[in-house]
Design a protein that fits this description.
single chain; mainly alpha; 6 helices; about 90% helix; extended; transmembrane helix; DUF308_memb; Acid_resist_chaperone_HdeD; transmembrane; HdeD family acid-resistance protein
């Protein structure tokens, strides 16, 4: 069997995985747009689970490296911090969301100022007007960051809407891809 036939055979068997991913993405997109608070709670819970899982796996990695002569202390420290971060995230989800939003806001402000400064420096030597795009990028990042810091709740809502729109669109495309693969798979079995 050639490579194309193998891929078509896999498509015929596993097209439904893309369909499930697409349906989940569409459902999450609808929830994020209709009930952003529920979507935020889900994302925070998912982040907490990730922190805890990452912490546990770091500790396990430390145990697995014990006899190798390598220092394992950092694995344990990272693991403990991950588990603690997960527990804190579960205990205070609202505070976690706010802290993350401020981090993103300040990161965007610093990035925006840096881009504006770079554009100003490039302006003198750049013959292609690339500095102008850098300036626009910096201004947009600065506006985005200041908006998040000054109005954090509106910022969270806006980000959730963007995530919801993205999830909805990507979910629709995944569903379309699933049915296309299903059809391609039928062609392979014929």
């Amino acid at each position: 069997m050639d490579a194309v036939g193998t891929v078509r055979g896999l498509a015929a068997r596993f097209w439904w995985l893309l369909l499930v991913r697409g349906i989940i993405a569409v459902l999450f997109g609808i929830i994020a747009l209709a009930a952003p608070g529920a979507a935020l709670s889900f994302l925070i819970a998912l982040l907490a689970v990730y922190f805890i899982f990452d912490g546990v796996t770091s500790i396990m990695h430390g145990f697995s490296e014990r006899g190798s002569g390598k220092s394992t202390a950092w694995y344990y420290i990272q693991g403990i911090l991950g588990i603690v971060a997960g527990i804190i995230t579960l205990a205070w989800p609202g505070a976690t969301a706010l802290v993350l939003l401020f981090i993103i806001g300040f990161w965007a402000i610093v990035g925006g100022i840096t881009a504006i400064g770079s554009a100003w420096t490039l302006r003198k030597t750049d013959q292609t007007n690339g500095w102008l795009w850098m300036l626009i990028t910096g201004i947009l990042a600065l506006i985005f960051g200041v908006t998040l810091v000054v109005s954090p709740f509106d910022g969270i809502l806006s980000i959730l809407w963007l995530i919801g729109i993205w999830a909805l669109i990507s979910g629709i495309f995944l569903i379309m891809a699933a049915f296309t693969l299903k059809s391609a798979g039928k062609g392979a079995s014929a």
